[in-house]
Structure to design on (330 residues):
């Protein structure tokens, strides 16, 4: 079966089929009766926004939040801006694909540095976790082309409407389970606020974060373009209560600002707020991204390191440069 056929299948079936798609893409096998080796937890139901079924996060199986023998590898590769590959439980997740060369966009955004490598160098990608599609610094032209050839794309309900049925729109606190040859990864969409507390940017500000979890899967929080410490704390409290301790946090920092939006208010976490989020979530490791390669950042990695030092949690911060070098977090 071709990869495009997998894509069409994933966009028109419930979560069981999405799991089978990922299993096949990873080189796994189905049972003799043609069904995937496992199905989603809880009772599957049709998704109103296309793609795989989203079940309640409350049905997540508690776990320790730490790697087990089932997770043979847990690596992170920073490619530039927010674009990052997470490899866990035999699956490779790509966060916010941006692969254009430096250029200016109609939106006024400008890409200032090339990615560590292009789409021809990323290897197999089993699922894209797309925080949102409205802004070039989270989904650029090359990233949009890439989505067409990825079997599973998870994002916001608005992204499903704009990009089509191959994108699964997930409301906050809904989940889907993706089966891999080495286990099952539950992906839960979690709230994110693309600006200061109390603002409502409408469709332009719709954004999501994600949490990865499961047996043998390090519980991983991906903030997306969230600028709110309050929202991140609420997410962390619920995750700890319903899933377990957070092992790793991937935070979008850089204090991104655009003069035309909200009087130049930060649209992603400032360095100080990123450190406060990390201190509250208390993960084993923190991976900071979205601080380079674009003209929108008002703070850099140096200020982030200082903020973590001020909070006495510098040891949690992973030294990640956007050079495409995998780091082992297991």
């Amino acid at each position: 079966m071709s990869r495009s056929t997998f894509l069409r299948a994933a966009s028109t079936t419930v979560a069981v089929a999405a799991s089978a798609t990922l299993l096949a893409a990873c080189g796994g096998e189905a049972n003799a009766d043609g069904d995937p080796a496992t199905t989603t937890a809880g009772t599957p139901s049709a998704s109103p926004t296309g793609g795989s079924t989203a079940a309640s996060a409350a049905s997540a199986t508690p776990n320790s939040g730490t790697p087990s023998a089932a997770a043979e590898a847990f690596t992170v590769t920073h490619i530039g801006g927010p674009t990052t590959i997470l490899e866990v439980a035999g699956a490779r997740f790509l966060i916010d694909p941006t692969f254009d060369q430096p250029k200016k966009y109609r939106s006024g955004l400008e890409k200032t540095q090339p990615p560590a490598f292009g789409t021809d160098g990323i290897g197999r990608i089993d699922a894209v976790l797309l925080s949102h599609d409205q802004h070039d610094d989270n989904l650029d032209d090359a990233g949009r082309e890439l989505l067409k050839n990825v079997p599973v794309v998870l994002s916001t309900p608005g992204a499903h409407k704009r990009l089509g049925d191959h994108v699964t729109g997930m409301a906050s606190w809904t989940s889907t389970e993706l089966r891999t040859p080495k286990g099952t990864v539950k992906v839960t969409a979690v709230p994110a606020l693309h600006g200061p507390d109390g603002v409502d940017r409408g469709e332009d500000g719709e954004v999501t974060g994600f949490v990865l979890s499961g047996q043998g899967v390090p519980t991983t929080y991906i903030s997306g373009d969230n600028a709110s410490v309050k929202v991140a704390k609420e997410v962390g409290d619920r995750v700890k209560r319903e899933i377990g301790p957070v092992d790793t946090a991937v935070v979008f920092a850089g204090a991104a600002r655009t003069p035309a939006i909200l009087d130049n208010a930060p649209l992603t976490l400032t360095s100080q707020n990123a450190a406060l989020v990390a201190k509250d979530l208390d993960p084993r490791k923190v991976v900071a991204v979205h601080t380079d390669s674009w003209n929108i950042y008002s703070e850099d990695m140096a200020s982030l390191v200082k903020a973590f030092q001020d909070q006495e949690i510098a040891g949690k911060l992973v030294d990640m440069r956007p050079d495409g070098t995998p780091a082992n977090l297991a």
About this structure: The first helix runs from residue 3 to 12. The longest strand covers residues 183-191. DSSP finds seven helices and 16 strands in the chain. The helical segments are 3-12, 15-25, 141-147, 157-163, 229-242, 271-281, 301-310.
